[in-house]
C-alpha cells in the first residue's frame, strides 16, 4: 500500500497565499536597497564589452577568477555605464591607460547595487580608477616578458641570420592600411631601380580580433618559409589604443617561433611594443622599413661594384694586348663590308620602286573595310541601347515595387515598436504607482509611530516636572528659605544680621540671622 508523507513546510504553506514572481522580486529589490544603500569599490575583470551605439550606454560582463591558476570563474555579474557617465568615463579611461575598456582588463570601479524585477541583479558603475588598470597592465607586460624570456623566445628571432639582400618578403598587414600603401610605394618607386617580390598575408592589426588574425598569418608564412627571405609586420601610425595588440603574448610568441627573421614597422616612436623587442629588427615606421631594405640592397650593390672595378683593371691589361690584333682584323672586315654594300645597293633601289605602289592599294582597301565596320557598329550600338533601355525601365518598376513593400514592412515594424514602448511605459507607470503607494503607507506608519513615541516622552517629562513643582513641595510640609529673593542652598550665602524670608504653605516669615552654625 502506498504511503504519502507531507513535510511541515508544505502543510504550513497551504494556509498562506503564494507570491507572484513579480511580488517576490519586488521584495528582493526593496531588501537589497535597504541592505546596500551606498556605492562600493569593486575589483573585477572585464569578460565582454557591448557598447550601445544608438543610446550611448555601455554594457559589461564582469568576472572574478580569484587566484585560481586555471582561471576558473568564481563569480560573475552584469554591469552598466549609462550614457551620461560613459562619455566622460570612457574618454578619461582611454586617455589615462592608452586603451579603451575591453575584454581582459582588470578594473577598480565604484558601483551601486541594483535589482530589476525583469532583468535581475546588476551593477551601475559611477566611477573608475584608471591608475589601478595602469598598474595591472604594467604587471601583465612584465609577466609576458618574463614568460618569453623563460621560454627562450625573447632573443630567438634575433639569432637568425638576415640575408644580405632580402627581396622575397612576406608582409603581415591590413590591405587597406595607409602604412602598407606607403611601404609598397616606397619599394616600387625607389630611385635605384631595385625590384622586390612581395606577398601580402592580410591580417587585422587593431582591435580584439587582431592577435588571433596576426598569429594565423604568421603560421601560414611558416608553412611556406622556403619561398621568402624575411617577414615584415607593418602598421601605420595610430594611438596607443590601436597598437595594444602588439603587446599580446601570442603575437610575440609567433614572432619568436618564426623560422624567418622578422622586421617590424609598427608606426609609433614613443614606446617599444613587446613585438618590437622580440623581432629581429625594429624600425619606427613602414616607410623606415622600406628604406632599411633599400639601404641593404644599396650596400650590397656598392660592394659588388667594388669587386667589378678590380676585375675590370685586370681585364684592361689583357685587352690592350689583343687590341692590335683586333685593329688589323677590323680593317679587313671593313673592306669586305664596303664591297658587299656596293653590290647590293642597286638591287635595293629596284625593290623600293616596286613597293611604292603596294601601300596605296592596301590603304584604299583598309579604308573601305573600316567604313563597313563603322556602319555595322553603329547599327549594333543602337539596337543594344534600345534593349538596355527596356531592361532599365523594367528594373525601375521592380525597384519601386520593392521599395514600397520595404517601406510598408518598416512601417509595420515601427508600429509594433511604438506599441511595445507604450506597453512598457504603462507597466513601468503601474509599478511606480504600486511602489509609491507602498512607500506612502510605510511613511504614514513610520510617522504615526514616531508621533506616538514623542507623545509618550512628553507625558513622562510633564509628570517629572509636576512632581518637582515647588508648590507641591510646600503642601507636603517643606519650606523655602530666601535671601534677597534667592533660594539659600548653603551656609556661605548668609551671615549675621541678614534678614531672610521663609515661605510656608500659607504665608511668609521674615527672620533676623543672629548667628550661624556649620555642621561638622
TrEMBL record:
Task: Give me the reactions it catalyses.
Answer: Exonucleolytic cleavage in either 5'- to 3'- or 3'- to 5'-direction to yield nucleoside 5'-phosphates
Q: Which PANTHER family match?
A: EXODEOXYRIBONUCLEASE 7 LARGE SUBUNIT (PTHR30008)
Which InterPro entries does UniProt cross-reference here?
Exonuc_VII_L (IPR003753), Exonuc_VII_lsu_C (IPR020579), OB-fold_nuc-bd_dom (IPR025824)
Outline the extent of the Exonuclease VII large subunit C-terminal domain.
153-510
What is this protein's gene name?
xseA
> If you read the UniProt record, what top EC class would you report for this enzyme, in one word?
hydrolase
Q: What is the protein name stated in its UniProt record?
A: Exodeoxyribonuclease 7 large subunit
Residues covered by the OB-fold nucleic acid binding domain: 20-128
Organism, by scientific name, is: Pontibacter amylolyticus
The transmembrane segments are: none
